[in-house]
Structure formats: C-alpha cells, structure tokens
From TrEMBL:
<dbReference type="GO" id="GO:0005758">
    <property type="term" value="C:mitochondrial intermembrane space"/>
</dbReference>
<dbReference type="InterPro" id="IPR016805">
    <property type="entry name" value="MIX23_fungal"/>
</dbReference>
<dbReference type="Pfam" id="PF09774">
    <property type="entry name" value="MIX23"/>
</dbReference>
<protein>
    <submittedName>
        <fullName>Putative caffeine-induced death protein Cid2</fullName>
    </submittedName>
</protein>
<dbReference type="InterPro" id="IPR019171">
    <property type="entry name" value="MIX23"/>
</dbReference>
<feature type="region of interest" description="Disordered">
    <location>
        <begin position="173"/>
        <end position="199"/>
    </location>
</feature>
<comment type="similarity">
    <text>Belongs to the MIX23 family.</text>
</comment>
Length: 199
C-alpha cells in the first residue's frame, strides 16, 4: 500500500471552497479511496504466506479470506502513518481552510449586490397586511459564505462518523491501541510537527 493511494491536496483558494460541487467531489473521492474501501485496504496488508500453508484449509470453502485475521503490527503502523492519517489530514486542512473562508468578508459575492437591492426595495415597499398577510415576509438571499459554512459543518459531522467507523475496523484488525482516532491522529500530527486541528 503506497502513499500514491492517498488523495492529493487540492490548491486551496476561496474559489475552490465556493465551488461546492468541487469541494464535495474532493471529499467524496478522498473518502472512497481510503475510508469506504477500508476492508479491502486492510485485507491487502494481510500476508497469509507468513504462517505457511495449512492443508486443512482446503477442506472447507474460504468465503472471507483475510477478513477478521490480525494484521502484522508493522504493516498496520505503516498504513496508518503513510496512508490513513495523511488522507485525514488533507481533508481536515481543506475543511479548516474553507471554514476560514466562510467566516471572512466576501466582497466578490455575486448575491451581495442583489441582497442590497432587495433590502432597499423592501424598505420602500408599502404593505397592507389585511389584503395580503404573506406580503411582509421576505426570503433574503443566502450569502455564499453562509452556504459554505453550512456545508463545512455538515462535512465535519460526516468526517466524525466516517473516521469513527474506519478507526473501529482498523483497531479490530490491527489490535493493540485502545486510543480513539482523535488521540491517535493528534499523536501522529505531533510526530510530524503539525498543529492540531478541529477535524
């Protein structure tokens, strides 16, 4: 399992974040490469030849070859340090950057001028609520920073769920550590002298 399997980091720009389709696609592809196929990735680490051939293994049909078998600790550690944690870190970096973009002023928002125009029209409008009780309700246009902030919150929640599921499978197959994924990832970050992040 080489590092080439991890998804490379995109160029982080506000335009990347505001293109929500591109942002979602990056996260989806990164997750599918590592987390969604975690069983196959872990099975690829298992080396049955190490134990030698067992003639009794041909007596029954093997349906889930390596599933459930312990993986060599060195192979597990290499997978976590060179594939799993870097993939998680790239996604954390992207989400943290986009969260920063979402909380920054956005003078280039194409909806900004439209919202100002709508606001001015609303102030000038005379409403007779007896004739039309719903006319006073205005649906303001959502700023793209608000939309991006909502997307980042949702994707962070998805990350929490996916990482917990992946870490459960890694812990089951690799054994050893009783640490949660957050603590293990933060220890890896410290060893690489990376700052801790919120995702």
């Amino acid at each position: 399992m080489s590092q080439s399997r991890t998804t490379s980091a995109p160029e982080l720009t506000p335009q990347f974040c505001f293109n929500e389709t591109l942002l979602r696609d990056f996260l989806r592809i990164s997750r599918s490469t590592i987390d969604d196929s975690i069983t196959q990735n872990l099975n690829a680490l298992y080396t049955p030849a190490r134990a030698g051939f067992d003639p009794s293994s041909t007596a029954i049909r093997q349906t889930d070859s390596a599933a459930g078998k312990q993986i060599e600790p060195a192979a597990c550690q290499g997978f976590k340090e060179n594939v799993l944690f870097p993939s998680w870190q790239v996604r954390s970096d992207v989400l943290n950057y986009c969260a920063g973009v979402a909380t920054s002023p956005d003078p280039e928002d194409p909806v900004h001028i439209l919202r100002q125009t709508d606001s001015a029209k609303e102030r000038e409008r005379i409403v007779d609520e007896r004739l039309d009780p719903y006319s006073a309700r205005v649906q303001p246009r959502e700023a793209r920073t608000e939309s991006l902030a909502s997307l980042v919150r949702t994707q962070r929640g998805v990350e929490e769920i996916i990482r917990a599921r992946t870490w459960g499978m890694v812990s089951e197959r690799c054994g050893g550590s009783s640490q949660g994924w957050e603590e293990s990832l933060n220890r890896w970050r410290e060893s690489r002298q990376l700052p801790p992040t919120s995702t």
